[in-house]
């Protein structure tokens, strides 16, 4: 066991994967000498050389497209997209090529790409630096999408993503890069699966589902709620596509109430998918309609206002009050309800 | 995999009207574009460059003092921006990236507006139609297509304005920039591609983006190109005027590569010592664009103390106004987050806004100050 930051844990996982498999190569902008703008690849070029840690020309479609070619050739490229907002120039290669090649070739061609995306807000950045684009990718069949929330998972799941023969989008909550945690580097990464959700806090009154950057906030909300006599079960999805609905379902059958929270905009987002799927699966166990606490349907706002957009502890607790029919911000039914 | 780190500057190929020590160099092809640039005009260019450097330094200081979240310095690129920016007509339209504050200054931007975005108070700093310049683009290279489309519109309108787009050496790798050149050539659009090759794209040297001089690519698209000494304000003015004239008279697009150097960090969040050799910086500091023009002015007796003092006073005054404007900028309101998402009402958003208003109202102390609601600070 050692204590390391989230960012350092990803670095250690990348190192381990590169040591274990010479076909693992890293590609991205500024990932070499600089170690990436967040220093996640720090020191890897020095130790593995320029042919395995490749600074790419400044072209995201180019990076993804050439990674496809390298995968054809038997490599396992790990791509760093510098910031979430810069994945869009590569969108075509990801959704039309990376996602579909296995299907198109009836399984003959594997696309074991890992696409690392620092995502989400809360760091006071200018526009295009704080997006939550996960739903675009969960909507695309052929891709696996995961999001990590703590150093141990980050360390293990980056290796699982790289080991997967499917293309994986690996979303890293950038505002948590400096959070420290215990990491056991001796774990057998085949002993667990990145597809499994994790119950972070057990509880019996409300199920609170989240992932990535909001997991610590959700945990804090559970603590605050318990001070108030409400027992909240917090689930960290980890995998966003496919979603481990069995774990969520089991929890909701127990609690009868579901709150989903994410930073991404509400409409057409993952919260909608979870609410619908859980309603289908356990309609008769629900005591209240599922409630979503999410970012608004707006372009990510400028930094002075971003904390209005991002769900925080109080907004999550307000959502918990809503599913419990306790007094909440919407209790007085005036104004719009549509 | 062998990496291409070739440095491509070939000084003999560059259009240069002012030599490294400030001596005026004759150039048969380009002198005619600057015949009218007399003493006062040269002094005005000098003033522009000193002022914009001062603005840059002030903004960097404001960032260090926590008044700005981030700042992308242009230190070293004053000649490329002022030389090209001062060549433009009012009805020309600029599509730039985030580093072209010198160009914005030439367009007449209200200085406080430059800082709005970097303070985190707004998504854009100015009304594009107010100064005929789009708000700065962060997505690398995207603006080159916008400029080309704007130029196609000019063409359709039968006007003789020109669209000018600014981007870096790194941007030339993007598909968008290459696609922009295809469109520009196909339609013979009146657009100028102004590439500031400042040698670095964050930590990546220009050799990683291009194996031949960047300007050599354009002819392959059917676009004439020129490499200019980007630290020579007069040469930048001359090549831009030539390109503008070509565009206005139906000659189509031009690609200009201004070879210059980013002397500061990429942004205030960057640490260039991790990737850049100190000697390289020293070499380029010796080619400082302001010192070069000062040399020329001095040799012609055009830089007496009255002039340098007046310029310095103006620069200090501008910097003081910039600081004042920054610090006294109005803070945004919580519900501003819902403004301008659409031009017509949207029922989904209206519901969210209503609910959030009620949420805010549910706090007894009803505090709409954003900083009170943060769960962590930046
Ligand atoms: C599509 C996209 N990818 C990556 C980035 C991140 N980024 C911002 S500036 C920059 C370097 C740009 O270099 P260059 O085009 O040479 O312009 P310069 O900054 O030197 O003026 C990068 C990689 C971005 N803004 N947009």
UniProtKB/TrEMBL annotation, chain A:
Please report the stretch or stretches of sequence annotated as the Transketolase-like pyrimidine-binding domain.
Answer: 4-179
In terms of SUPFAM superfamilies, this protein maps to:
Thiamin diphosphate-binding fold (THDP-binding), TK C-terminal domain-like
Specify one Pfam family: Transketolase_C
Matches recorded under InterPro entries: THDP-binding, Transketo_C/PFOR_II, Transketolase-like_Pyr-bd, Transketolase_C
EC nos: 1.2.4.4
Q: Provide any one GO MF term from the record.
A: branched-chain 2-oxo acid dehydrogenase activity
Q: Does the keyword Oxidoreductase apply?
A: yes
Cofactor(s) listed in the protein's UniProt record: thiamine diphosphate
The first-level EC class reads: oxidoreductase
Record-level GO BP terms? branched-chain amino acid catabolic process; response to nutrient
- CDD domains in the record: TPP_PYR_E1-PDHc-beta_like (cd07036)
Q: Which UniProt keywords are present, listed alphabetically?
A: Oxidoreductase, Pyruvate
Indicate what this protein is called per its UniProt record.
3-methyl-2-oxobutanoate dehydrogenase (2-methylpropanoyl-transferring)
Species whose genome carries this gene: Arthrobacter pigmenti
TrEMBL record, chain B:
Q: Name one Pfam family in it.
A: E1_dh
> Which Gene3D superfamilies does this entry report, sorted A to Z?
3.40.50.970
Q: Which UniProt keywords apply?
A: Oxidoreductase, Pyruvate, Thiamine pyrophosphate
The cofactor required is: thiamine diphosphate
Q: Which InterPro entries match?
A: Alpha-ketoacid_DH_E1_comp, DH_E1, PdhA/BkdA, THDP-binding
Q: Does the keyword DNA-binding apply?
A: no
What top-level branch of life does the organism fall under? Bacteria
> In this protein, which residues make up the domain named Dehydrogenase E1 component?
49-316
The enzyme's main class, written as a single word, is oxidoreductase
- Write out the GO biological process terms: branched-chain amino acid catabolic process
Gene Ontology molecular function: magnesium ion binding; pyruvate dehydrogenase (acetyl-transferring) activity
Task: Give the EC number(s) listed in the UniProt record.
Answer: 1.2.4.1
SUPFAM superfamilies listed in its UniProt record = Thiamin diphosphate-binding fold (THDP-binding)
PANTHER family in alphabetical order:
2-OXOISOVALERATE DEHYDROGENASE SUBUNIT ALPHA, MITOCHONDRIAL
Record protein name field = Pyruvate dehydrogenase E1 component alpha subunit
